[in-house]
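Consider the tokenized backbone below.
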């Protein structure tokens, strides 16, 4: 059987690429061999993909994947709700460690605790939350209600990175997973990096764990998120690399201190471009995130960056839509090299 052997730190990124390209063999199980991971494939992947991940093709006997009952079927079977409402139980949810966040139809409100108990039992969870009103405030706090369980703090593992946080108080965007994985592969050896909106370490941690930056200054204005950022720096063993900074990034001292600036925020990110331009070195790179109407991509993000570099110039290295943010609105990221005025 065909498979690919890859180092553990690159395995999740490669698995996602193989899944997107339809090459992942889902009938057979992935094999963990300690430092290496063996992934079953349907046919030989392109050489470029193998080289990008440092993977090689192998001939290996992969075990058949065990098929368990679909979790939603178990939830619908055990939930203590009227039979005519069982099909209303959601088949999709966001899982963070041993906590999930789901959305419920209004018809299920009288049975919320029973619903939470059923998901907890079927999925092996300590807490079940219901999303009630999206994200609000400058600190991007989610609006949720606890349906089952008391302790909502969890440790979520993604791409080998441990993120400890409370989904009842902290946002974690599943849709940004590809960008977090991209950060893990960003060559930045010896660089000083400023993460202007660090949160719990979404981008700072993959950079510090998988690359060799000289220093990552991780700015976060929310005391709650900053507390988890400090915990996560220790959890991932990067205390000597990531320096947490509690406060508004506009109060960060210095000028032309960063080889790279990460602006992983949305809605009002452009208001912080002057700070990014103060912090970035001549020839440095800014990773600028923006929520933008589809018909204004890429013109508006580029114009905003260019307008912030008075007398200088901007070279676009990459522009990509991360995900749909709302109907007709995209979340995009622009990688731009900044040439400051002489």
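A designed sequence for it:
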């Amino acid at each position: 059987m065909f498979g690919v052997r890859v180092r553990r730190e690159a395995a999740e990124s490669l698995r996602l690429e193989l899944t997107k390209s339809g090459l992942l063999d889902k009938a057979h199980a992935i094999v963990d061999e300690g430092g290496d991971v063996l992934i079953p494939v349907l046919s030989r992947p392109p050489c470029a993909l193998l080289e990008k991940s440092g993977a090689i093709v192998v001939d290996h006997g992969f075990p058949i994947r065990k098929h368990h009952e679909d979790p939603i079927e178990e939830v619908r079977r055990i939930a203590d709700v009227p039979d005519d409402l069982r099909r209303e139980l959601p088949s999709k949810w966001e899982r963070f460690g041993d906590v999930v966040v789901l959305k419920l139809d209004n018809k299920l409100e009288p049975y919320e605790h029973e619903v939470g108990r059923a998901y907890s039992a079927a999925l092996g969870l300590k807490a079940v939350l219901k999303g009630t009103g999206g994200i609000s405030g400058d600190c991007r706090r989610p609006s949720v209600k606890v349906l089952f369980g008391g302790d909502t703090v969890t440790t979520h593992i993604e791409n080998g990175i441990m993120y400890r946080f409370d989904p009842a108080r902290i946002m974690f965007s599943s849709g940004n997973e590809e960008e977090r994985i991209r950060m893990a592969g960003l060559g930045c050896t010896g660089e000083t990096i400023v993460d202007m909106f660090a949160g719990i370490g979404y981008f700072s941690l993959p950079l510090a764990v998988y690359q060799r930056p000289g220093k990552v200054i991780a700015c976060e204005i929310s005391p709650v998120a900053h507390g988890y950022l400090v915990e996560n720096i220790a959890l991932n063993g990067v205390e000597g690399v990531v320096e947490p900074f509690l406060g508004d990034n506009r109060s960060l001292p210095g000028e032309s201190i960063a080889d790279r600036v990460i602006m992983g925020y949305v809605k009002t990110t452009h208001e912080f471009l002057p700070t990014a331009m103060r912090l970035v070195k001549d020839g440095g790179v800014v990773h600028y995130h923006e929520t933008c109407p589809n018909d204004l991509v890429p013109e508006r993000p580029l114009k905003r960056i260019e307008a912030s570099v008075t007398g200088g110039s901007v070279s676009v290295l990459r522009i990509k839509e991360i995900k749909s943010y709302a109907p007709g609105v995209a979340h995009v990221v622009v990688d731009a090299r900044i040439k400051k005025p002489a």
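The radius of gyration is 22 Å.
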